[in-house]
Amino acid sequence: MTPYALILLVSTIISAFVALAVWHRRTSTGGTTLFLLMLAIIEWQLCGAFESMVTGIPAKIFWSKVCYIGSLATPLLLFIFAIQYTKMEKWLTRKNLTSLCTIPAIIFILTLTNEWHNLIWTSYTPAPDALNTIIYGHGPGFWIMIAYNYLILLVATLILLLSGKSSRKIYRQQLELIIVALVFPWAGNILYLLDIGPFPGQDLTIVGFTLTGLILSFNLHQFKFLDLVPMARDLLMEKMNDGIIVIDNKERIVDINPAAQEIFSNKTEKLLGKNIRQLFPELNNTIKRNNLCGNVSGEQEIWKNGLKNTYNINITLLDDKQGNPFGKLILLHNISELKKTEEILRESEEKYRAIVNNTHEMVYIYCGERFLFVNDRICEITGYTREEIDSMKVLDLVHPEEKEKIREIMQRRADCKDAPATLETCIVTKNGEKRQVEIAISSIKYEGQCAALGSARDITERKENENVLVQAKMKAEEADRTKSEFMTTMSHELRTPLNSIIGFSQMLLEVPGSELTNAQNKYASNILKSGENLLQLINDILDISRVEAGKKEVEAEYFDIQKALDDVNMLIHPLASKKNIEVIIDCENANNLLYADIIMFKQVMYNLLNNAIKFTAEKGKISVTAKSEEKEASISVKDNGIGISEDKKEMIFEPFKQIDSAKNRRYEGTGLGLALVKNYVEMHGGNVYVESEEGKGSTFMFTIPQQDISLK
Length: 712
Hints:
By secondary structure, the chain is of the alpha+beta class. It contains 21 helices and 19 strands. The protein has helices at 3-23, 31-53, 57-85, 94-112, 114-117, 140-165, 169-193, 205-222, 233-238, 258-264, 268-271, 281-290, 336-358, 376-382, 386-390, 403-414, 460-510, 518-549, 561-578, 598-614, 673-683, and strands spanning 121-126, 134-138, 243-248, 253-256, 296-304, 307-319, 325-334, 362-367, 370-374, 422-428, 434-446, 449-458, 557-560, 582-589, 593-596, 621-628, 632-639, 688-693, 697-705. The strands form five sheets. The chain has a five-stranded antiparallel sheet, with helices on both faces. It has a five-stranded antiparallel sheet with strand order 9-8-12-11-10. Helix 2 packs antiparallel against helix 3. The radius of gyration is 60 Å and the shape is rod-shaped.
C-alpha cells in the first residue's frame, strides 16, 4: 500500500464520521445536500485509494474514471448547499438544476468514452520512483471541467461571503469556517495542476476535502452548524420587541437580539460567549432553581438606569429532530405596564369592594341559581353567614309565596327574554322574619361568565309607613265623606225652617204700615235679611259639599255670554246701586256663544261681582271684560277697591278663609264664594287668576276652554 493510498483511506474514515454527524442533522436547512456532498467526497477518496493501490494500467484507468463521479458531483453539491444555506432556494428550479448538471454529465460521458476521442486525457505514463501512479496528459475536456468547477465553486464562495456580511457573529463564524474549509481543496487542486507536491501525478484536491471535513466537524460541534441557521432570523429575532437569548448546552450565549441588548444595555460582542449565569443575579437564581431542565417560566425584576422593570421569563429547551438537546431559548417579555395595570385594578377592586361592603344596600352577583358574590349587608339583613349563603340558592332567601314569580323572572333573564329590571318582593331571614325588598337587576360579565348583578334595598319600614299613610288617607276620606254628607243633611234640614222664617218675615213686611209699629217693621226686616244671608250660607255650604263629594256635575250647553252677563248684572244691580258703584260690561271681543254650565257660569260671575262690590268703596267702578280666543274664552272682573296683599292671594280661594278674620271685621261673608269660583272653573278645565295691589284694587280672571266638553 502506497503512502498516498493510506492517506486517502484515513481521509475516507474521517469523512465518514463527518457524514454520520451531518446525517443526524439532515432535516436542517441544507443538511441533506451536505450529506450527499460528504458521500461524493467519500466516493472520490475511496476510489482514489483503490486507484493508488492497484498495479495494472487498465485497473488504474477504471478507478480513475469512477473517481470522476465524486469529483464532478462535489463542486455541484457544494454550490447547491450554498444556495440553500443562504435561503435562496427560489433559484433552484428544475430548469436551473438541469442546466447545472449538463456539463458534468457531458464530462462524465466523455470520461467513460475517452479511448474513442482522448478529450479528457490524451496520454498516460507511469510516475517515476515506483509510486505506482499514472501521470495523465490532460485534454480539452479536462480543462473545461476544471473551468466549470472553479466557476461554480467561486460563485458558491461569493454567495456565502455576501451572506455573512449581514449575519450576526455566530453565523458569520459558521460561514467563515465553511470558506476556510473550501480553501484546502482549492489549494490541493492548484498543486495538482501545477504538478507540485510530495506525490507527483496524485490529485491533492481530495486530500484537501479531508481537511474540509474536519473543519465542518468542528463547525458542527463548536458553532452548532446546521443547528443554528439563520432561518427568517430578521423576522423572528431582529424585529421582535421581546428580548431573545439563545444559549448552548454549556450555558454560553450564542445569539441575542437587539431587544435583549437594550434590556442589559450592552453590545452583542460583549454578551456573546458569556455564561448566562453571569448576566444578572435575578435570572441566575431562576436558572439555579430549575437547573435549566425543561421549560421554565417566571417573573424577574431588572433594574436599568434606576428604574425597575418586570419581565416574564420563559426558558425553552431546544431539540433537534432526533430529540437531542443542543441549547435553550430565553424569552424576556416586559410586563411592567401590565403589572402597573394589575396594581391599579387591584386597588380599584379593593376600593369598590369596600364601597360595596359598606353600602346600605344589599349587593350580590349570581349565575344560574347560585350566588357568586354577596356583600356584608346581605349577611346583616338575612342573619346568614357568608359561608352559609355560598351554599344556598337565590330562591332559598325568597318567601314561599314569591318563589314562583322570582323563578319565572330569573328564567326569562337566563333565556335573554324581556324581564323586569326592578321589582319588589319579600325575603325570609334566618330567624323567620319577613322583610320587604326592592331589587334592581342588570346583566354583567363576572370572572369570564355571564351573570346578574342585583342591588336590593330593605323597604320594610317604608312599606309599613306607606300602609299607615294609606290607612290614614282612607280614614280622612271617610271623615271627609261623612262631613260632606253631614253638611248636605244639615243644609237640607236647615233650609225648611229658614224658608218659613223668610216667608213669614216677608208676609209681615207686606202688612199695611198702620198695623205694625216702626219697631216691628224694623225687626221683621232684620229677620228677613238674616234669614236670606243664612240661606245663602247654607246654599254655598251645600254646593261646596257636593263638589268635594264628587256629586256636582257640569251640565254644559251653548249660551250667549252677553245675555248671561246681563242676567247676573240685573241680580247684582241693587247691591251696586246702594253704594253708587258703576258696573261696566264689555263683550265686544267675545263670541256670542260659550259651551259651559250656564248656572255655574252665572254663580261664578255673581260671586266675583258680589266680592268686587263688597270691597269697593262708594261711587267706585267695576269693569267686566269678556274675550274669546282660538282655544279659550277669558272673563275678567276689575275693581278699584281695597286690593289684596301679596301674602294673602293664595288663601282667598280656600274654603272658609277670609282676609279679615277678626271678630270686629268690617266685611261680612263666609269665605266660600271664591272657593266655589275656583272649583266651578276648574271643573270646566279652566283656571282662575288674581292680580291685585293693596289699596289700588283687584282684577279676577278666569278662563274656560273653547271646545265641546263632557266634564264631571
